[in-house]
Amino acid sequence: MTIQLKQVSKTFGSFQALQSINLNIADGEFVAILGPSGCGKTTLLRMLAGFEQPTSGEIAIGGSVVASSRSSLPPEKRRIGMVFQNFALWPHMNIYEHVRFPIRTHKETPRAIREREDERINEVLQLVGLAHLAKRMPHELSGGQKQRVAIARAIAPQPALLLMDEPLSSLDAMLRMDMRREIQSVHRETGSAIVYVTHDQGEALSMADRIVVMKDGQIEQVGTPQEIYLRPQTEFVARFVSKANLIQGSWSGNRFMPLGADPSTFWPGDAVADCFKSQGLYPVRPDQFRLEPAHTGGLYGEIVNVQFQGKEFNYDVRAAGQQWEVISPAAFKLHDQVTLHIPGVASKTSLGASSSAGSSS
Ligand code: ATP
C-alpha cells in the first residue's frame, strides 16, 4: 500500500510544527525521517498513525484519504503498527499475550491471521528470536528483548505500515547495532513499509531505502542514503548528515580555490550543489580528506587535536583561521604541519615533486 502526504501542515496554537509536507512512500519501502530534536518528526509520525489531525493537506493510504483538516480515520482503523522508544509493554501480560492482543483487538487484522492466531504468534516470536521466552513477563526481560516484544506485537496483525519512533534510543550502543540488523530482517520478512523516526544519522543511513531530512517543520532533502550522504543539497544536510566541513574560498566557474591554500590549488566542483557555490563554500566530509605532510600543494594546516580510534585517527586541523575535522589512517602528532587534500586532486608528493614520507610520526 502506498502512502501519500500532500501539502500536509500542522499547527499547535500559533506554532507551525509542520509546513507543506509532500511525500510519497512506496509499498514496502523503508523510509527514515531524520532530523534534530523539535523538527517535527514525531508529529509527522503521529499524523500517519491517526493520533494527530492535519491542520491542512491530506494523507492517503492505499489511495484512500485517511486524514485531512475535515476528518481523520482513527488509529485502529488504519492498518498500522507502532513501536515506541520506551517499549510501552504491559506489566501484567506475558510475551505471548502481548503478541496476541493486537491480533484480537485490531479491527483491521486480516481474517486469515485471526483464524490461525496461535500459529501467527509463534511465527512472529520466531522472527524476533523470542519463541523460547513466550511465557516470560516484561520484568523478566532485558532491554533488547523488551524491544523485540514491542516489534513482535506491532507486526503480529500484519500491518501495511510499521511506524517506529526512535525505537533504539533507550538501548546501549552495542545492542543498538544488533537491533539494526533485526529491524532490517523484520522489514525483509514482513514486506511492510516502515517509517522510522530518528535523530541518529547512522541508523537512517544504514537501514533506510530513502531518507527524509527535516528541519524546522520542513523537508530539507529526500534521497537514498548515498544521495543524502554524498551529495547534500543544503548546508544543513551537509552538516547534520555528512558532518561535512564547509571550507571557505572562492569559486571560479566550476573550480574552487580554498582560502589559505597553496595558490595552485583548485578543487573540482562537479558534485557540489549550487547553494554552496553561491556562498563561496565547499563541503568536505571528515573521511574525505587525505592528510599529507606540510606543503604538498593543498590547504595547509596544523594538527591541534588527535584522537586515536583504532583503525584511524580523528584530527582537528586548524587551517586558514578555521578548525576542521579530519578522519584519516595516516599518523600525525599534535602540532604537526599538514596539507589537506581532497579526492581526485593530486598533491605535489603524488606527482613526485616532493620526497616527503606519508607520515611524520
Ligand atoms: P524529538 O526528536 O525531540 O522528539 P521531534 O522532531 O519529534 O523532536 P515533535 O515532537 O514533532 O519534534 O515536535 C515538533 C514541534 O512541535 C516542537 O517544537 C514541539 O514542541 C511542538 N509540539 C509537538 N506537539 C505539540 C503539542 N501537542 N502542543 C504544542 N506544541 C507541540
- Count the E strands: 19
Corresponding CATH architecture of the largest domain: 3-Layer(aba) Sandwich
The helicity comes to: 10-25%
Cα-to-Cα separation, first versus last residue: 58 Å
| SSE string, helices as H and strands as E | EEEHEEEHHHHEHEHEEHHEEEHEEEEEE
* Rg (C-alpha, Å): 25 Å
Lateral strand order in the biggest sheet: 6-7-8-3-9-10
Notable characteristics:
361 residues, alpha+beta, Rossmann fold, OB fold (Dihydrolipoamide Acetyltransferase, E2P), 2 domains, six-stranded mixed sheet, five-stranded antiparallel sheet, 19 strands, 32% strand, disordered C terminus, binds adenosine-5'-triphosphate
Description:
This protein is of the alpha+beta class. It has helices at residues 41-49, 95-105, 111-115, 117-127, 143-155, 173-190, 201-207, 225-230, 235-240, 274-277, and strands spanning 3-12, 15-25, 30-34, 56-61, 64-68, 80-83, 161-165, 193-198, 210-215, 218-223, 245-252, 255-258, 267-268, 281-284, 290-293, 299-308, 313-319, 322-328, 337-341. It has two domains: 3-230, P-loop containing nucleotide triphosphate hydrolases (Rossmann fold, 3-Layer(aba) Sandwich), CATH 3.40.50.300; 245-341, OB fold (Dihydrolipoamide Acetyltransferase, E2P), CATH 2.40.50.140. A six-stranded mixed beta sheet has the order 6-7-8-3-9-10, with helices on both faces. A five-stranded antiparallel beta sheet has the order 15-19-16-17-18, with no helix packed on it. Strands 2-1-4-5 form a four-stranded antiparallel beta sheet, with helices on one face. Helix 4 (117-127) crosses helix 5 (143-155). The longest helix has 18 residues, at 173-190. The model is unreliable at 352-361 (pLDDT under 50). It binds adenosine-5'-triphosphate. The site of adenosine-5'-triphosphate has 12 residues, from strand 2 and helix 1. InterPro entries: AAA+_ATPase (IPR003593), ABC_SmlMolc_Importer (IPR050093), ABC_transporter-like_ATP-bd (IPR003439), ABC_transporter-like_CS (IPR017871), Mo/tungstate-bd_C_term_dom (IPR008995), P-loop_NTPase (IPR027417), Transp-assoc_OB_typ2 (IPR013611). Keywords: ATP-binding, Nucleotide-binding, Transport.
